[in-house]
Design brief:
Distance between the termini: 28 Å
Radius of gyration: 23 Å
Largest sheet: 8 strands, mixed
Helix content: 25-40%
Strand order of the largest sheet: 3-6-2-1-9-11-12-10
Number of strands: 20
CATH architecture of one domain: 3-Layer(aba) Sandwich
Structural class: alpha/beta
CATH class of one domain: Alpha Beta
Shape: globular
Low-confidence stretches: none
Length: 423
């Protein structure tokens, strides 16, 4: 039996009973002959509570100290889980991210992993112990400061450790039974997939699917680490995310993998931009210098009489104020008329590698939205994805309509969210 990395989210270790349930599952894997490395998130809503507490103390917490605060949640989880495992008669050692050898850059609150040097983890495994690692955190390469990896950081920690340790699989335990064709909280008839390729999963994650984060899947694809997404609340087989189906799976790659949605974005429209070379570059250089990632971009055809055009783009709501401020400061240099900001939008995406060889997918997608009475504001496409921006109030109805139109509905309501969050 080989080495297995298991990751448990906050809903799986939300309380003492949850921690004991997770400990038993880990011990069972050890009894089956596996070497086991476990990555844990903070218990329940601990991280959100720490963020709220920091906001009460300081409106703009210093990045270094904010990271030091937030990593406390995972350290609590790892220590309690190690105690629970020892209570079941097995040896376990807990490690912070820095002790586990997770080396990052020095960007606080959203650091990226540079390297993983898991010497202490290997030693613990060689001694027959279960290794438990605090997710979401590392140590900066230059200043040796504690850093956090941002949203989905524990998933990324798990996959990075799996790659560094040459694990057979990285098991991501959550509060749903796998990856579904849509968010189970929105589409009760969403169907669990037995297998999904990295390419499709990357698009779903980038389009708003919350069961796996984009950085985690990107890392797994780069190092070819199979991910098994499953629930810690049931013993059911989950969804495999990999280049090829695993084991005895005989899975035909579907034309459409799923429908994702995202209501965490906002739209900025730069009005009255001179229609000449270099203007768009100046706008997006300003956004890039503010360290803001953008998603969809649309430029209108310029009016012949004015030689002016409008440029719209979407970005995370959390970066909206920063983007507007940066553009206002650059208004004189760029020469646009005004800015419009809209945070009441939602994005719906249809994903599937099969659509590039199947005509009619685009037409069916837009017909489904039309039949549901959903108006489209922006459109973006790739070879395996079609995304549209609509009003936020229309998102749930649009997702259900598209899901049904492409025959993705299950015959039964199998999409269960055990912990209530979908993560």
């Amino acid at each position: 039996m080989g080495l297995v990395v298991q990751k448990y989210g906050g809903s799986s270790v939300a309380d003492a009973e949850g921690i004991k349930r997770v400990a038993k599952r880990i011990v069972d894997a050890k009894k089956d002959g596996h070497q086991v490395v476990v990555v844990v998130s903070a218990m329940g809503d601990t991280t959100d509570e720490l963020i709220d507490l920091a906001g009460q103390v300081s409106p703009i917490p210093a990045g270094r100290e904010f990271d030091m605060l937030l990593t406390a949640g995972e350290r609590i989880s790892m220590a309690l889980l190690a105690m629970a495992i020892k209570n079941l008669g097995h040896e376990a050692q807990s490690f912070t991210g820095s002790q586990a050898g997770v080396i990052t850059d020095s960007v606080h609150n959203k650091a990226r992993i540079i390297d993983v040097t898991p010497g202490r983890i290997r030693t613990a495994l060689d001694e027959g112990n279960i290794a438990i690692v605090a997710g979401f955190q590392g140590v900066s390469q230059d200043k040796k400061d504690i850093t956090t990896l941002g949203r989905g950081g524990s998933d990324t920690t798990a996959v990075a450790l799996a790659a560094a340790l040459d694990a057979e699989v990285c098991e991501i335990y959550t509060d749903v039974d796998g990856v579904f064709t849509a968010d189970p909280r929105v589409v009760s008839k969403a169907r669990k997939m037995e297998w999904i390729p990295f390419e499709d999963m990357l698009e779903l994650a980038a389009s708003g699917s919350k069961v796996l984060l984009h950085r985690c899947v990107e890392y797994a694809r780069r190092y070819n680490i199979p991910i098994h997404v499953r629930s810690s609340f049931s013993g059911l087989r989950g969804t495999w995310v990999s280049n090829q189906p695993q084991g005895d799976q005989q899975v035909e790659h579907a034309i459409i993998s799923g429908v994702a949605h995202d209501v965490s974005e906002a739209k900025v429209t730069v009005v009255g931009v001179p229609d000449k070379p270099g203007e768009a570059a100046a706008i997006f250089r300003t956004i890039a210098d503010a360290e803001i990632n953008i998603d969809m971009v649309v430029q209108n055809v310029s009016a012949a009489a004015t030689a002016l055009t409008d440029i719209s783009f979407t970005l995370p709501k959390t970066d909206g104020a920063k983007a507007i401020d940066a553009l206002e400061k650059a208004k004189g240099a760029i020469g646009f008329d005004s800015l419009r900001y809209d945070d009441q939008i939602g994005k719906i995406s249809l994903v599937g590698a099969g659509m590039k060889t199947n005509p009619g997918v685009t037409a069916s997608f837009f017909e489904a939205l039309s039949d549901a009475g959903v108006n489209i504001e922006l459109i973006s496409t790739s070879e395996i994805r079609i995304s549209v921006v609509t009003r936020a109030d229309d998102v749930n109805e649009a997702v259900r309509a598209v899901h049904t139109a492409f025959g993705l509905d299950s015959d039964t309501d199998e999409a269960v969210v055990y912990g209530g969050t979908g993560r």
